[in-house]
Amino acid sequence: MDLRDYLRIFHKNWILIALCALVGVAVAAVFSLMATPKYKAETELYVSVRAGDTAATTDLVQGTSFARQAVTSYVSVVDSASVLDRVIKELKLDTTPGALAAKVSAESPLNTVLIDITVTDDDPQRAADIANSVGKNTSYIVTNKLENAQGGASLVNVQTIQPATTPTRPSSPNVPINVLLGLLVGLGVGILASFLRSILDTRIHNAHDIEQVTDRPILGAVSFDPSAKKRPLIVHADPRNPRAESFRSLRTNLQFVNIGGPRSYVITSSVPGEGKSTTAANLAISLAETGARVALIDGDLRLPKVAEYMGIEGAVGLTDVLIGRAELTDVLQKWGRGQLYVLPAGAIPPNPSELLGSAVMANLINDLTSEFDFVLVDAPPLLLVTDAAVISKLTGGAILAAASGRTKKNELAAAVRALDHIDSRLVGVVVTMLPVKGPDSYGYGVYGYGVQNEIVDDEVSDHRVRRAAQA
C-alpha cells in the first residue's frame, strides 16, 4: 500500500472514524461526570539529626549523611499500621489501617532528607486533616519509638515544614485529559476498524483493485446512474451527459487495442447485474457515431436485453438464423441514422451453448466481421454459463464489465481464469457503476461549453429510442 491507498481508506471511512472519535469523547465525558471527585492534600516532612553544641563539622556531615540514608526507611513508616492506628483514633475515622493505607502515599526526592506525603480522599477537608495527622504521627513514631535510644532524647528530628491545606479543586477526574484520551482512543479504534473493513472488503472499487487481479488494461470507467434502467441508451438519450462521454472514451480506447486484428468482441461480465448489456448497446451507438459500420448481436440466449433496450422487435433473431429458419439479412435490423445494425436474440432455445459454439455461429461471426467495421456480441456472465467463453473463441477477444462496489475480486479473477483456460484473449476491463463522489469516484470533464447537464424526460427518451429504431 502506498500513501494514496491510505488516503483513500481515510477518505472512504472518515464518517466511521469521526463517529468512533465522537463516541470516545462521549464515553470519556460521561465517565468523568459520573466519577466521584477525588481531592489530594500534601504535606512535607524534614528529617534531621541533632548534634551537640560542641559538635564538629565532621559530626554534622555524618549526621546529614545518616539522615539521607534513614529517610528511605522512614518513607515506609508513613503508611504503617503503627502510624495509621493513631491517625484513626485521633480523627475518629470509621475505617481500618489497611483501607486508610490505600489513600496514603509517600516518597522522598532523590538525595534529600524530605518526605512528601499525599492523601487522596473524596472529602477535601478530611484529606487535609488526614495528611496533617499522618505527618504528625509519623514524626512521633520515628522520634519516640524507632530512634529513641534507651529512653533518652532521640537524635533524629522529624518536623513538618509544609502543612497540608484544604484543596479547592479535585485532582480527579481530570476532564480535559480524559476527553483527550477518549478522543485518541476513539480515533485509534476508528482507524483500526477502517483498515479491517478495507482488508475484509473483497469487492472491486477502483482501478487499483482491478490491477491486483489482471494486468489487462482498463478500457473505460462509467459512473453509477440510478436512472439507468429508465434510459439505458444514455449516449442516444442524453449525448452531453458525462456517462455518454465515458462511453465515447471507451470507444476511443477500443479503437487502439486491436489494430490490425479482427474488430469483433464479446462483451460479458463475471456475474449478472454488472451493466454488460447497457455497455454493449451504448458502445455500439458511440462507434456508429463515428461513421463506422457496427453490428450489435444479442448473444445472451438465456436472458436477452438488447431488443428491449434498443426498442426493436426481438421475436425473431439470432436463434432463427442459427437453426436455419431465417436468413441473416431478414432479421438484421438497422437502428438509428448511422450504420448500426442490431441482431436480436430471437426465441430462447433449450441448448444455447451448443448453438453459440456451432460452426454456423462461427461462420456468422466471420461474415459479419468481414462486412462490418465492428462486431459486438452481448453474452451471458462467464461464471454462470459457458456461452461467453465459447463466443470469445470466435471473436477477437472479450471485454469484461466489472461493477464497482458489487463485483468481488475472486469473481473477477475466476472470470479471467475462465478465459485463460481456453486461451481466449481478454481485451480489457470496463469499470461500471463507479460512485460519482468519494475516493472511488471517477472525474468527468465538462463536455461542451456552458451548462451541459441537460435533463431529459423519460417519455422523451423513450420516444427518441423508438424513432431511432424505426429510422
From TrEMBL:
<feature type="transmembrane region" description="Helical">
    <location>
        <begin position="14"/>
        <end position="35"/>
    </location>
</feature>
<keyword id="KW-0812">Transmembrane</keyword>
<dbReference type="Pfam" id="PF02706">
    <property type="entry name" value="Wzz"/>
</dbReference>
<keyword id="KW-0067">ATP-binding</keyword>
<dbReference type="GO" id="GO:0005524">
    <property type="term" value="F:ATP binding"/>
</dbReference>
<comment type="similarity">
    <text>Belongs to the etk/wzc family.</text>
</comment>
<dbReference type="InterPro" id="IPR003856">
    <property type="entry name" value="LPS_length_determ_N"/>
</dbReference>
<keyword id="KW-1133">Transmembrane helix</keyword>
<dbReference type="InterPro" id="IPR027417">
    <property type="entry name" value="P-loop_NTPase"/>
</dbReference>
<protein>
    <recommendedName>
        <fullName>non-specific protein-tyrosine kinase</fullName>
        <ecNumber>2.7.10.2</ecNumber>
    </recommendedName>
</protein>
<feature type="domain" description="Polysaccharide chain length determinant N-terminal">
    <location>
        <begin position="1"/>
        <end position="91"/>
    </location>
</feature>
<dbReference type="GO" id="GO:0005886">
    <property type="term" value="C:plasma membrane"/>
</dbReference>
<keyword id="KW-1003">Cell membrane</keyword>
<feature type="transmembrane region" description="Helical">
    <location>
        <begin position="175"/>
        <end position="196"/>
    </location>
</feature>
<keyword id="KW-0418">Kinase</keyword>
<feature type="domain" description="AAA">
    <location>
        <begin position="273"/>
        <end position="386"/>
    </location>
</feature>
<keyword id="KW-0829">Tyrosine-protein kinase</keyword>
<keyword id="KW-0808">Transferase</keyword>
<dbReference type="InterPro" id="IPR025669">
    <property type="entry name" value="AAA_dom"/>
</dbReference>
<dbReference type="InterPro" id="IPR005702">
    <property type="entry name" value="Wzc-like_C"/>
</dbReference>
<keyword id="KW-0547">Nucleotide-binding</keyword>
<dbReference type="InterPro" id="IPR050445">
    <property type="entry name" value="Bact_polysacc_biosynth/exp"/>
</dbReference>
<comment type="similarity">
    <text>Belongs to the CpsC/CapA family.</text>
</comment>
<keyword id="KW-0997">Cell inner membrane</keyword>
<dbReference type="GO" id="GO:0004715">
    <property type="term" value="F:non-membrane spanning protein tyrosine kinase activity"/>
</dbReference>
<dbReference type="Pfam" id="PF13614">
    <property type="entry name" value="AAA_31"/>
</dbReference>
<keyword id="KW-0472">Membrane</keyword>
